[in-house]
Amino acid sequence: MLKIAYDPIYAHPLPEGHRFPMLKYELIPGQLLYEGVIGRNNLFSPGLLEENIITRTHDENYWHQLRDLTLSPKEQRRTGFPLSAQLVEREIRIAKGTIDGCRYAFDDGVAFNVAGGTHHAGSNWGEGFCLLNDQAIAANYLLDNKLATSILIIDLDVHQGNGTAEIFKNEFRVFTFSMHGANNFPYRKEYSDLDIPLQDGVSDGEFLDILKTTLPRLVEQHKPDFIFYLSGVDILATDKLGKLALSKDACKARDQFVFEQCIKHNVPVQVSMGGGYSPQIKDIVEAHCNTFKAAIDLYF
């Protein structure tokens, strides 16, 4: 059974002026339930995460500043959020949902987090609506508990996974792959193990050709025993921040190809949603829901 991490706090952590980007986190499960794609039993609400698991990935001083709400105004502006206890709790629950999703993925092949993909959070900073890096925390959890020995992180959000790259720059057991817009945020990039910067206006065929040439080779070479997939839909032509030109069909084909590779090599995968900033919320929700549908079609 497909298991999906979701909690109402995902959607309501912010003052009124910041809520639009968060609406999708309640609309995605709502739409999937409405269409009968999933049932209530597919959803689970993650708990809180122990501090020692957080500080395995994030600097202890940075974590204490988050926990104690003492980030400086400059550091808060970098995150894009006004810091609050509810926002910090949200990030903790997202990270716990990704860890729990890994355990479900070992049983079912795939598991989802409705939120997550907080790949701009580095070891000692928050940035770009990311405070704690959920997939990095989960990857370290798998390594520390000997649940995985070789991990591949596939980041296909339009923005480079700079925080993830920084966290794992000296960790040979985690291979970071980011395929992103070259001229997009973050403007100071980190170095992933493999970065593929895309020029503005990349279309369906070019994007999919690059992915289909690259990903099978990475899986063959590195033989991961676990994969994390960040499936941002800000690659869409409709996205106001993305600068690429992909259709919803190509976005779904991207997801299908990633899942097909995971199935072919019998590697479990945890999926976090990442970004999506199209002006029409329906475009964001439909594209994200297509990722769930692609997994259900292939796995269940």
Q: What does this entry look like structurally?
A:
By secondary structure, the chain is an alpha/beta fold. It has one domain: 3-Layer(aba) Sandwich (Arginase, Chain A), CATH 3.40.800.20. Helices cover 43% and strands 12% of the residues. The protein has an 8-stranded parallel β-sheet, sandwiched between helices. The protein is globular, with a radius of gyration of 17 Å. The relative contact order is 0.15.
Number of helices, where a helix is a run of at least 4 consecutive DSSP H or I residues: 10
Number of strands: 8
Q: How are helices and strands ordered from N to C?
A: EHEHHHHEHEHEEHEHEH
Strand order of the largest sheet: 2-1-3-8-7-4-5-6
Outline, from the CA principal axes?
globular
Note the beta-strand portion. 5-15%
The CATH H-level superfamily is: Histone deacetylase domain
- The averaged pLDDT comes out at 95
Provide the low-confidence segments as ranges: none
Q: Which class of secondary structure composition applies to the elements?
A: alpha/beta
Question: What would the keywords be for this entry?
Answer:
alpha/beta; single chain; HDACs; HDAC_classIV; 8-stranded parallel beta sheet; about 10% strand; about 45% helix; Arginase, Chain A; hydrolase; about 300 residues
Q: Brief description of this entry?
A:
InterPro entries: HDAC_classIV, HDACs, His_deacetylse_dom, His_deacetylse_dom_sf, Ureohydrolase_dom_sf. This protein has 300 residues and is α/β, with parallel strands linked by helices.
Question: What order do the helices and strands come in, and which of them pair?
Answer:
Blueprint: E1 4-5, H1 24-34, E2 43-44, H2 51-57, H3 60-67, H4 73-79, H5 85-108, E3 110-113, H6 134-144, E4 151-155, H7 162-167, E5 174-181, E6 194-198, H8 204-222, E7 226-230, H9 248-264, E8 269-272, H10 281-299
Parallel strand pairs: 1-2, 1-3, 3-8, 4-5, 4-7, 5-6, 7-8
Helix pairs in contact: 1-10, 2-6, 5-6, 8-9, 9-10
